[in-house]
Amino acid sequence: MTGMVYLDVALGLIFTVLIFSLLASAVQEVLAGLFSWRSRALRAGVARLVGEKFGTIWKSPLIDSLRGPGFGFPAPAADSPGKRDPSYIDPKIFASALLDGLGLAGKSPAAIVEEMHRLERNGTASDIHRRLAAVLAGIEAGAAGAEAAIAQWFDAAMERVTGWYVRRAKFVLFFIGLALVGFTNTNLFAIGEQLLADEGLRARLVAEAEAVAEFDTLDEVRARMGLGATEQLGPEDLVAWSAAVKGEIAARRAALEATGVPTGWARCNAAGEPQEGGPFHCGFVDWREGIVSVLSWLAMAALVTLGAQFWFDLLKQFVAVRSAGVRALKPGSEKA
What we know:
Elements: H1 3-34, H2 37-50, H3 54-58, H4 61-64, E1 68-69, E2 83-84, H5 91-101, H6 109-122, H7 127-136, H8 143-184, H9 188-197, H10 199-213, H11 218-225, H12 235-259, E3 267-268, E4 280-281, H13 287-304, H14 308-329
Antiparallel strand pairs: 1-2, 3-4
């Protein structure tokens, strides 16, 4: 086989993984919206940062102004009935809320540090007082300098929260991907074998991949599939978007089957014999096939955790390489 055949096989596999990555991330967005994962991660991060003063800071008017209408499971904000905790806080707003909550608004860094030391001497200093003294130590600017230093400190702390959230998201994404490929019985190994053997299937998947590669950004691909971002969606919007995701999963599965990609479960009769339109799903032919299929599902789920952006970028690179190769193979083209 020529190198172009193997390139087309790789392109078809990348395209397949990209589709499942997009669907898995869409399902994850639905779950993140319903269960307020981002706002809960932010709330936990702020609580660790300010310690026992969390209640005072979190209920401040500045933070409360960032809350939206409450929905999701369970109740989004127990201390603010009917409201939803924010999923993002501007560092400057946090700095102002913190200083207001501690009664330090308008004071210079030196004055704040002196106040923190006084509380320490009196034995009434809390963890946030000690942290604040450390953050502002040595800063000579005025009140604006204090807010800027606190904002920078908060921003660095939220980067750690983001890292924790991303790790958790990848963990969840693995199981979502595993559920999707198991539900559709998508065997990446079988697809690779089929692509090697079937020139027509390769051509169809390559055409699909090239069409996707025409988009400049992944957001455009999501929009084309009806899988836009869920940020700032209300309850009715989120329910409608969830239905759209469910419909897109069914549509993508049907589209893959239409191209000839080996996905889905065969139907069987009551005796377990393959039958078109049978009432039952057929199981694996034997335990060896079952092991290979499960290993393929696990591999596919692991690939999905790399993220749709990774596979979209890789797809565009492979399409560019293939296009260059096709031009080089055309009669009359210059040969290197």
